[in-house]
Amino acid sequence: MQALQRVSAPVYVVSHHGKTFRCFSRNTAIKRLAHFMTQRMFCRAGIETRPVTKVDRDDVAIHYINKPIQRYWDAQARCERRLRKILSRK
Known about the structure:
This protein is an alpha+beta fold. Helices cover 44% and strands 28% of the residues. It has one domain (4-89). It is built from two helices and five strands, in the order E-E-E-H-E-E-H. Helix 1 (26-45) packs across helix 2 (70-89). The protein is elongated.
């Protein structure tokens, strides 16, 4: 099974490392695949993409999950550009 393929229905199927999603547009499918690839790369490198902040409020510890770091967004945009470049050659 390829990472990005078109099935007989008007949907794109994106699968990467056991995760599978169906997308109605090519643009969404490319973004989803770039997300999978970037997330996997950061996980292997041991870099947190969404750092957790511990907040103590009224003697209760709250673990707040922040937005993804800018380095992650830049890597995902790079991956998306490269995927579009590869697919434009085909």
